[in-house]
Each structure stands twice: as structure tokens, then as C-alpha cells.
Structures
1.
Amino acid sequence: MSGEPFKLVPLDARHDRATFNSDSEPLNRYLQQQVTQDIRRRVAACFVALAGPSRIAGYYTLASASLLLADLPDSTRKKLPRYPTVPAVRMGRLAVDQAYQGQGLGGALLADALDRAARAEIAAYALLVDAKDDAAAAFYRHHGFIALPDSPLTLFLPLATIQLTRIAANSSGADH
Ligand SMILES: CC(C)(COP(=O)(O)OP(=O)(O)OC[C@H]1O[C@@H](n2cnc3c(N)ncnc32)[C@H](O)[C@@H]1OP(=O)(O)O)[C@@H](O)C(=O)NCCC(=O)NCCS
């Protein structure tokens, strides 16, 4: 990423939502008109990347969700207990302002979402994403997400791998 680093923080009232401009009108509108209501009703949490004190360069939302065991690929299902569903965290929306695309910010927001989901005390098996189209699905596959066999725009990434990476990083930090 070039220039000043972005600050990744929960959305708050001081942030300027009105000027946010990604390629996706529905994702712009959601941030401008809907997200504060969803936060108030506790149906979504929203995190933003700030470029400056109030300029939103990108955002994503998280909420709890569940995955039907029957929807998962066979190879994944075999490793899980036979409950009808497994808990998940859904990243319902992710968008980067056009001025900041192609600089690694989308990847950084995704990493931040994975880290928050893996750190949460309430267990979730995977981070689940709803890609808005094939290009978005390709972005998630590029980052290791796996598509549901019957629904290729819904993808997931198991969180256990993220947790193991963090545990390894923490213990190597403690050693030195
Ligand atoms: C998709 C989006 C979030 C990507 O953000 P970005 O900041 O431009 O992406 P980054 O610069 O972080 O790209 C990170 C990596 O993903 C890759 N990538 C980006 N878009 C990709 C795509 N459509 N398909 C495959 N790989 C892609 C980049 O090449 C880069 O790879 P590298 O790390 O190996 O160099 C952004 O383009 C966007 O907001 N689009 C409109 C809304 C949208 O599609 N949201 C998706 C969720 S519905």
C-alpha cells in the first residue's frame, strides 16, 4: 500500500459516509442510507478504513450467520460434526472507494475481517461472503475462499487456519 497507512476502526458518526464512491451504487447507497440503522438494530457491525480523520476509503460489514452442513463440499463436511448447521460470520458487504482501489486495501479489509472473526470469543467455523458477481467471487477465490458447490457466489474460509497462524505468531513473539 502506498502513502499514509489506513486506520481500520468501527464506523462512527464523525466519518463522512456521503462522499464514499465505489463502483457499486448499491454498496454506496447502503453505507450512505442503511448501515446506521442496521448497526442500531444489531443486525450488522461496520468497520471502515480511514484515509484521514473522516474520509472513508473502504468498508465492510459483519454479522453472525449459519451454514447448512448439506451445502458444504463433501471434503469439508467429512471433517465436521453431524449437526444440521455450523456457525459462521457473514461479511455481507465489502467495498473500496474508486480512488483507493488496486492498492491492497480490499485485501487488508478482508484480512481485518478474518482476524476479527477468528479472535471473537463466540465460536464460528468460517467467514462467509456473498459475492455480488463473478468478478467479486474471483477476488475471494484469489484469497483462498471456497465456493459452495451449488451456489458459487457464496464462499467461505474456515477460521481455524487463521487462528493457528495467530497462535504460531504469538508464541514466536513470546520466544524472543
Ligand atoms: C473487489 C474490491 C473490494 C477489491 O479491492 P481492491 O482494494 O481494489 O483490491 P486489492 O488491491 O486489495 O487486491 C488484492 C488482491 O486481489 C486481487 N484482485 C482484485 N480484484 C480481483 C478480482 N476481481 N479477481 C481476482 N483477483 C482480484 C488483486 O490482484 C490483488 O492480488 P495480489 O494481492 O496477489 O497482488 C474492490 O474492487 C471493490 O470495492 N469493488 C466494488 C465492490 C465489490 O465488488 N465488492 C466485493 C464484494 S460484493
2.
Amino acid sequence: MTLQAGRNYREEASKGLDNGCLQKILKKLQNNFGKGAIEYWASMTDSGLRDRAKNTRMETLANLDVVLSTLAENVEKAGGHVYFAKTAEDAVNYCLRVAAKNDVETVVKSKSMTSAEIGLDAALKSSDIEVLETDLGEYIIQLAEDQASHMIAPSIHLNRSQIGRLFEEKLGAAYTDDPAELTRIARKMLRHKMLDADMGITGCNIACAETGRISLVSNEGNIRMVTTMPRVHVALMGLERAAATMDDHQGLLQLLTQGAALQKLSTYVSFAGGKRLAGDPDGPEEFHLVVIDNGRSKILGDNAFREVLACIRCGACLNICPVYGRIGGHAYLSPYSGPVGAVVSPLLFGINQYADLCKGESLCGACLDICPVKIDLPRMFWNCDISWPMVIGNRRRENMTGGKLWCSSCGALV
Ligand code: SF4
């Protein structure tokens, strides 16, 4: 992935700071979800769950070769195909081969940051394949020819009147800013496409090696349709998104939905893997799991940064970060924004291109406090020489201890 010509973090961050509408939206997001998650962690009855989940993630990463080979074995036992892609190009080419073999003309997708990472949509479109996003936020972004600005809420930077105008312009719908009506308009447009599509492409929240099933969470029901209606289902996963056992999977799922949206469980949890069996009412004739490296094994071999691969992409650190809360997700110029994006993007896409992301972090430590699996992102910023110029005295570092994790300079989220 390369930065779009002429765009850089500093300029994009400045645009975010000048955008009053964005500031208002992000403040609301952080006040509800960020503070809500912190309060929930403090009141959890099972206070050891986050530590156990962190240990589980780190153990899985230490044995990733075994876990992934068990996963592949069990997916194949269920009639699925597993492909290990070394690079983004490799993954894209595999998807294109599967599409060509199955005469695919239309693809419906559910939200997948990995798909954005490898640039899959553009490749499908240049092969004359129609691609439609079915997650409401992603659909809005696609219509607006925009980019996601949050891991869980991709169109969070747009307010409902902007979305109403967009639907009016792109779909010919009568203007409304009523969220329920806007959802109905999108649902009507998407439903037939989901029924008629040849291929469904999804991400993967957690892949369970023991069962050979991937789990996918949503609140919209679109994933159920994307994984069951088309003839072919292709699931994309970063190689770190695996759990060894169902027990491990269970704890992570609970933390994921809580961290992402303050939900005990999301409205839908889908388990997919393997092909439709005789007697099944629905399901794909072919299932492909694409396990993507694209720089992750290099991170795995790095003692200082391996921990970032424990991330379950819940987005909670975005909901508390005073920097993200001011500049928004577009400034990061990556599918991975916020504090975790500031660590992952330079590691995956090149330190020279993405160095400024680390420099922008405040080192307040709020991301560590909120992370369901307690990933020590501040340590990684701290380890990273390039973040030092942004440290103002030692006050912020001191605030990372004693449970007082708020940014002392900007006072955000106090
Ligand atoms: S670093 Fe932690 S809080 Fe941030 S997205 Fe990953 S798991 Fe969630």
C-alpha cells in the first residue's frame, strides 16, 4: 500500500482539526463509546478476562505455525480451501483466479479492513467485476467514493444530513435525514444485489483452529446474506487473527463486541467455513480462506512489536484517543487508523511513508487503558525513537502510571 500522491499526515490532520462537524461527531463517539468501555472494564465481574485473553493471544502468536496449520486442516476437512498469501498482490491474484474460475460477474462484500489493505476492490473492478459493499457504513463510503475513517464505524465522519444528500444525489432518493428511513433506502438497494451476487467476500473476526470455522460479527445481518447466498464465499484474514481453541475464541469474542460497541454480544454472530453440504438449506458451493501475511511475519519476529499482532481490531483505542478524537481517521491515510494504526501502518506499509503517525501520538496511555487485550501501544510509541520529539517533558509518561491515563497537555477525555 502506498500513500496517495500529495497527501500527508500533517496536512490531513490539520484538515481534521479545522472540520467543526467532524469534531462534534467524534466528541459524541468518544463520550459514549470510549468512556462507556472504560466504565465497563472497571465494573466487570470477571476482572481477569482481559489478562487471560492477552495471554491467550500471545501464546497463539508464539505457536502461530501450529495453530494455522490446524486451522487449514480443519477448514479443508469441511471441504473448504485455504490459501496462504505472502503478499497483498498474491492475495489479490488468488481472489481474481477464484472469481475467473467461477465466472463471477458480481461480488457483494462485508466490511473487511484486510480487503482495503490489499486493494482488492480496485483489482476486481479492473477485471470488470461489479463490487458492492453491504455494510451500511461501507456502502455510504462506497457511494461517496470516500475512505473509511473508523474501524467499526467507517462513515462516522459524515452526519445524517450529509448522508441524506448523498442518497439523494447517488440513488435518486427523496431527501431525508431520518436514520431509519436512510437505512430502509440502503436496504432496498442492497437486498436484491445480495440475493443475485455470484461471490461473497468477507473479512474474519476470529478464526478458530479447533473447529475450522471463522466467526463474523455484525449488527445488520448483511454478513449472513453475503456468506450464504452467493455460490462462492471468500474470507480474508490477516494471519494473526486465529484462536487455537473454542474456549480461547469465546473470551475474545466477548471482549471484541464489548470493546467495539459496548455489546455483550453483537446482534449476529456467523460461523462460516467449508462448503454447503447435502441437505443444507443454504451456503456456498465453494469456500476459500485466504490467510494473508503481507509483512505480518516480520512483525511476528520482532520482539518489540510482536504484541501489536494481538489486536482484535475492536476499534476501542480510537474511541478514547485524544489525537484520533481531534484529527479523525482520514488523517492516518491507512485502513488502520487511531493509535493501533499509528503502530501497525508503519510496520506494514513502510516506516518512511508512515513515520509521522507515531510522531503525532500524545503518549497519554489511554489506548492501553481501554484495550480489551491490554496491548501496550504506548510502550511501542515509547520504544520508537521517532516519537520522542513529540514528548513534552515527562508529564505524559508519568500519567501512564497510577491509573491516571488522560492526556495532561490537551486535557481531553478527563
Ligand atoms: S489495539 Fe486494542 S483497543 Fe485498539 S483496536 Fe486493537 S484490540 Fe482494540
